Automatic annotation (TrEMBL):
Descriptive protein name: Zinc metalloprotease
Record organism: Pseudodesulfovibrio piezophilus (strain DSM 21447 / JCM 15486 / C1TLV30)
GO biological process terms on file: proteolysis
Pfam families the record matches: PDZ_6 (PF17820), Peptidase_M50 (PF02163)
UniProt EC number: 3.4.24.-
InterPro entries listed in its UniProt record: PDZ, PDZ_6, PDZ_sf, Pept_M50_Zn, Peptidase_M50
Major localization listed first in the record, in broad terms: membrane
Cofactor(s) in the UniProt record: Zn(2+)
Annotated localization: Membrane
Superkingdom of the organism of origin: Bacteria
Record's keyword terms, sorted: Hydrolase, Membrane, Metal-binding, Metalloprotease, Protease, Transmembrane, Transmembrane helix, Zinc
Residue stretches making up the PDZ domain: 112-183
Length: 353
């Protein structure tokens, strides 16, 4: 339990800290003044001043923050020149500083996936049977638990993905499965049944199914090359899944009850930590991608909202008026509070049920 608690604090706190590190790094790259860079929130425990920046360790270890000179529109800051003020910089530089937070979250996910590719190799889910649904073609054909599919109609099957693709491309024609069972090969004749089901994003799709579920056995193979390409592809694919998931919620294909908050995140990290370090790192990478995309939403108070403001400033050659910014910020805070309330409500509803 203690290990899981430490994992939750380090994982979630580390993600927010790495996000803030992105803002800090790009601000310093442009020569902007940084008043404070904190690991953690709340009262200061320890720290040091280097140049004009206070680096400190704070009491609550859930993330961190960066305080830029002139970030709230101040035209003067004690100890900082006009050129160092965030508010005095061109809109494109301010946009880069804001966008650096989400970018660093994508970068962290890529680094983790790269490490996992080098440490584990490429994981392949084996085509082993972990469950057989009643009254399905698989049950009628005589499938048993732990059967491993070797081929379908002469096509060699080395992964669960390959097996699913082969079944879906077959339509409703009869298929000859060769499976390995207790060291022996067994031939089974199966005719898939076409069912209408909802996919991950709540969309109704028609697919041929035989009625088996995977056994969860994974085999790792050495990767070709450095693994960077595989990590980049995995990061891109996960980002695509997250974005499509958000769009499905907006389109009400996925119910809002599926939205989770801090309790669900903590539970996911806890479950991953119980499985092992590799599973934990994989979950951290996935949450990092979610954090990046959430922050890029064009909602005022989020990074995406600020990017939108700076983008409009670039287009119209002048910043939005303080009045419009204040109205937008109030609207953004209201939206964010409603989403947080919904997420926390869903968390408690799941706990109670």
């Amino acid at each position: 339990m203690l290990i899981s608690a430490i994992a939750i604090v380090v994982a979630l706190g580390g993600l927010i800290f790495f996000h803030e590190l992105g803002h800090f790094a790009v601000a310093r790259l442009f020569g902007m003044g940084v008043k404070a860079f904190s690991l953690g929130f709340g009262p200061r425990l320890a720290g040091t001043v280097s140049g004009k920046t206070e680096y400190k360790l704070s009491l609550i270890p859930l993330g961190g923050y960066v305080q830029l000179a002139g970030e709230d529109g101040e035209e003067e800051e004690d100890g900082f020149s006009d050129e160092e003020l965030f508010s005095s910089r061109p809109a494109w530089q301010r946009m880069c500083v804001v966008a650096a937070g989400p970018f660093f979250n994508f970068l962290l996910a890529f680094i983790i996936f790269w490490f996992l590719a080098l440490a584990q190799g490429q994981g392949i889910i084996l085509p082993t049977v972990g469950g057989i649904m009643a009254d399905t073609p698989a049950a009628s054909a005589g499938f048993r638990l732990d059967d491993r599919v070797l081929s379908i109609d002469g096509t060699s099957i080395n992964s669960w993905t390959k097996m699913v693709t082969t079944i879906r491309e077959s339509g409703e024609k009869s298929l000859e499965f060769i499976v390995e069972r207790d060291g022996q090969t067994v031939t089974l004749s199966v005719t898939p049944k076409v069912n209408t089901v909802k996919n991950l994003f709540g969309e109704e799709v028609t697919v041929p199914m035989v009625g088996i579920s995977q056994g969860g056995k994974v085999e790792y193979h050495p990767i070709d090359g450095t693994g960077a390409g595989l990590a980049l592809e995995h990061t891109w694919n996960m980002a695509h899944v997250v974005i499509k998931g958000f769009l499905s919620i907006i389109e009400r294909l996925i119910p809002v009850e599926s939205i989770g908050g801090p309790i669900m995140l903590a539970q996911m990290v806890h479950d991953s930590a119980q499985t092992g370090i590799y599973a934990l790192l994989n979950m951290v990478a996935i949450i990092s991608i979610n954090l990046a995309i959430i922050n890029l939403l064009p909602i005022p108070v989020l990074d995406g909202g600020h990017i939108l403001f700076f983008g409009l400033e670039l287009i119209f050659r002048r910043p939005l008026s303080d009045r419009w910014k204040a109205l937008a910020m109030r609207f953004g805070i209201m939206i964010l509070l409603l989403l947080m309330a919904l997420a926390i409500f869903n968390d408690f509803r799941r706990l109670l049920s």
